[in-house]
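Q: C-alpha cells for this one, please.
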Amino acid sequence: MKTERDPREVRLRERIEAIRARSAKSTPWRSSVQYLSRLVNDTGHVPVKVRLSREDLSFLAGAREEVIMLADLAVRLIELHRPQDSGGITSDPDSPIRRCRACMWRWPCPTFRAIDESVTR
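A: Here is the predicted structure, written as C-alpha cells:
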C-alpha cells in the first residue's frame, strides 16, 4: 500500500531541491575571492568584467533570499530541538540523561545531529 505524501512536504522538498539544483549549476567563486578581494577600490567595490551563464544569473537572482530563508529554518529547528533533563534516575548525577524537547529522542537528537553535520562539513 502506497502512502500519500503531504502536499506541504512535496512543495517544501521541491523548493529545497530547486535551490540545491540552481546552486550546483552555478559557477563556484571560492577560488576567485582571494584574487578579487585585492581589487576592492576606494568606494569598496570590485570592478569586475565577467561572463555569467543563465545558471549563474538564475542562482544570483534569489541566492540572498534563499540563504536567509534556509538560515532562518536552521535557527528555528535548533530552537525547537533543544536538550532538557529527562527527569529520570541516573547513576551519574553530574551527567543526567537529556532528551530533545521536541522529539524526545536522547540528546543530541537526529534532527540536531543532521543540522550540525550539514553546517560543520
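A few notes: Strands lie at 83-85, 98-100. DSSP finds four helices and two strands in the chain.
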